[in-house]
Amino acid sequence: MNNMAAIPATPTRRSNPWTVLFVFLLIYIFNYADRYLISGLVDPIKAEFGVGDQFMGLLMGPAFAVLYTTAGIPIARFADRSSRIAIICAGCLIWSLFTGLSGLATSPWMLALARVGVGIGEAAFVAPAYSILSDYFRPERRSFAFAILGLAVYFGQITGYTAGPAIAEVHSWRMAFIAMAVPGVILSAAAWFLVREPERRHAATTAAQMALAPLVHKLARARAFTLMMIGMGLGTLSGVGFGFWGPTLFSRLYDLPLASASSTFGLYFGGAGLSGMLLFGVVADRAAKRGLEWPLRMAAGALFAASVSILLVTWSDHIAMAKLFAIPAGLLGGGWSIGIMASLQYLLPDRFRATGTALFIMVTTFLGFVLGPWLTGALSQMFGDDALSLRFALSIIIPTGLIGAASMGLAVRHLEADRERLAGIAADPAAR
């Protein structure tokens, strides 16, 4: 890797692109670690507060994700005309502080409010980060850069799955939250000093913004945008539902201590997912030379195959079989989101890239993080609140990924035409 992959220097002094990417990777790791930390602490929290799977699903999903999704839009609008790195640093500090406050909760509803704060802080990262990286890396190198950033999803999940239960076994679930808050505070300061705001590549970016309602209307008419959004939303619903409840499923099905189940789940899915993420980024960049719609084609195929593999894991009667199927599930599931995010950045003009990305993330996150964990928990509790009920619940949630893959495949047909139309709208907002 070298700096030739980066966009040519501007008169504004810039950070090294790979330094920016590395700092964002570390921040994103703890973004996901703090998000998934609770999934490895389900049983001790249930035991202390006397709640069921449905309430734990509420903590994992809606309590975190409702404001995570809605706050992303005004934050991204602000990011389209102001310092994106300042927004990222502030958000990192906020979610870290609320992660620590989660460990001080004296009731389940106080814990839910702390999760709301985590969601608000984490909403400040993704859209500004993708926007900054798009200014640092050329389109033909973005898939690889996004793949590196995407490693955080799996590093973060592994960290949350393993560190939380390990700390809880020695101390308590409360100390797990407090300890996991510290790295984010440090990284917030590090990003402020190490990452410089890049000059935006087109003057139009800093021009007056389009009003939000007309922008939403124009994006909704772009079939590629809508189909990609539906596809990623359903794929996220499938993957996140399984990601949050997978350790509990392993614990209940195979009679494992939660710490052991979490580390096993994280090791096999996370390890394979890391490999899949890197592999997808490299292959997608090469495929993009044939046409910039190819990363999206690959994402559709990978999501379809990953959903089938995850279903096989869910219905494995022995842990050895579950581990075996976890490898293709992780490899295939690890990279598909990289392809769709690279295609999204290619589709959206600079002028409203951060806002368009935030709208996209709002819908996909609502489907994935609001509905996925909560609906899985609610179905599990309805079916019996045990191992078999959780297996049935996941068997309803996971196949949504198959529908998402089909939606992505349809989006490929419209990518180029919609890119040209949105570019025309960015140049002339009155254009249809």
TrEMBL record:
Keyword Membrane in record: yes
List localization entries. Answer: Membrane
Name residues in a coiled coil.
Answer: none
Instruction: Enumerate the spans annotated as Major facilitator superfamily (MFS) profile domain.
Output: 20-416
User: Where does the protein principally reside?
Assistant: membrane
Q: How does it sit in the membrane?
A: Multi-pass membrane protein
The Gene Ontology terms for molecular function here are: transmembrane transporter activity
Does the keyword Transmembrane feature in the UniProt annotation? Answer: yes
Q: Name one GO cellular component term.
A: membrane
Give the record's keywords alphabetically: Membrane, Transmembrane, Transmembrane helix, Transport
What residues form the membrane-spanning segments? 20-38, 58-78, 85-106, 112-132, 144-163, 175-195, 224-245, 265-284, 296-315, 321-344, 356-376, 388-412
Q: Per its UniProt record, what PANTHER family does this chain match?
A: PROTEIN SPINSTER, SPINSTER
Protein name per UniProt: MFS transporter
Q: Which organism is it from?
A: Sphingopyxis lindanitolerans
